[in-house]
């Protein structure tokens, strides 16, 4: 039972990262109907920029804030000067475009940081926290806290602010939103910025639990996208639940069966769910009514 609880704890931590990445996919898709397959690179940039800024003797907290701001700016620029200029492109063309951006960012990162792995020290020490025989790193608490903070912040933005209502308007009908004085392109830039910031935060909180490198965002981006599809591209809540579910399945699969099949188990569940309910666990029959 203790081992089982340990697997659950580990799964919730990695699932939290998948959830953050998945929410980023959903945020962008809801506003612009673009599936941004460069989302994983935001995660990589967040961790790598933090490592570089700290190496320049910038205080830890300031390095984190600056890295998040830089990645947010990259996300906004990506929407404005790449995605925004391809308004008439087909959805498939936009997907290929974001794959190209992902490869470009990864290539530039490999030239800047090389192909070595880097470490980022934990935010609050290395001593683990133990309870009921289950031991988790203190950094794991920051991962869970990041998930909760991001979800609460997004809920407040979407439900309690005028900006959130504008974003919702664009997700439902961009033409009607434009006629009401809302700029879909500005809301899309905002969505990319928020998504990039969330990805950077995920990269920063997960890096101390492992190592980070120029290509660390590739697999995490794929897992986050899988969670977004599994939960339903139109549902932030569904993406969160699906991210946690994938993390749990991976941890249990690695612990109870073999570490070599953990990815296969997660994707088998994804395939099974989509065969039964193609819109995902929380998806609607129709998501949105057209893009920019």
From TrEMBL:
Residues that span the membrane, as ranges: 6-27, 60-78, 90-113, 140-158, 187-207, 227-252, 264-283
Location (main, coarse): membrane
Membrane protein topology class: Multi-pass membrane protein
Pfam entry (one): BPD_transp_2
Signal peptide: none
Entry superkingdom: Bacteria
Subcellular localization: Cell membrane
Record keywords: Amino-acid transport, Cell membrane, Membrane, Transmembrane, Transmembrane helix, Transport
PANTHER family: ABC TRANSPORTER PERMEASE PROTEIN, BRANCHED-CHAIN AMINO ACID TRANSPORT SYSTEM PERMEASE PROTEIN LIVH
Similarity-based family: Belongs to the binding-protein-dependent transport system permease family. LivHM subfamily.
Protein name: Branched-chain amino acid ABC transporter permease
Species the sequence originates in: Effusibacillus consociatus
């Amino acid at each position: 039972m203790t081992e089982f609880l340990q697997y659950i704890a580990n799964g919730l931590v990695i699932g939290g990262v998948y959830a953050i990445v998945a929410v980023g996919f959903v945020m962008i898709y809801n506003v612009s109907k673009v599936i941004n397959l460069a989302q994983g690179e935001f995660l990589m940039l967040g961790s790598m920029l933090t490592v570089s800024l700290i190496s320049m003797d910038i205080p830890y907290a300031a390095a984190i804030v600056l890295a998040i701001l830089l990645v947010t700016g990259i996300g906004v620029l990506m929407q404005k000067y790449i995605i925004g200029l391809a308004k008439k492109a087909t959805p498939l063309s936009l997907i290929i475009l974001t794959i190209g951006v992902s490869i470009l960012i990864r290539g530039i990162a490999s030239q800047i940081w090389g192909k070595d792995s880097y470490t980022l020290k934990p935010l609050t020490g290395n001593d683990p926290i133990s309870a009921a025989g289950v031991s988790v790193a203190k950094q794991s608490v920051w991962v869970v806290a990041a998930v909760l903070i991001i979800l609460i912040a997004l809920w407040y933005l979407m439900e309690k602010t005028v900006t959130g209502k504008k974003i919702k308007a664009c997700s439902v009908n961009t033409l009607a939103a434009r006629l009401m004085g809302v700029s879909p392109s500005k809301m899309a830039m905002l969505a990319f910025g928020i998504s990039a910031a969330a990805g950077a935060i995920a990269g920063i909180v997960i890096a101390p639990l492992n190592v980070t490198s120029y290509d660390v965002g590739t697999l995490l981006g794929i897992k986050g996208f899988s969670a977004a599809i599994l939960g339903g591209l139109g549902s932030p809540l569904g993406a969160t639940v699906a991210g946690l579910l994938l993390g749990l399945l991976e941890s249990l699969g690695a612990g109870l069966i073999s570490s070599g099949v953990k990815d296969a188990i997660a994707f088998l569940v994804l395939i099974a769910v989509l065969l039964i309910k193609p819109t995902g666990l929380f998806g609607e029959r129709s998501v949105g009514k057209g893009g920019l």
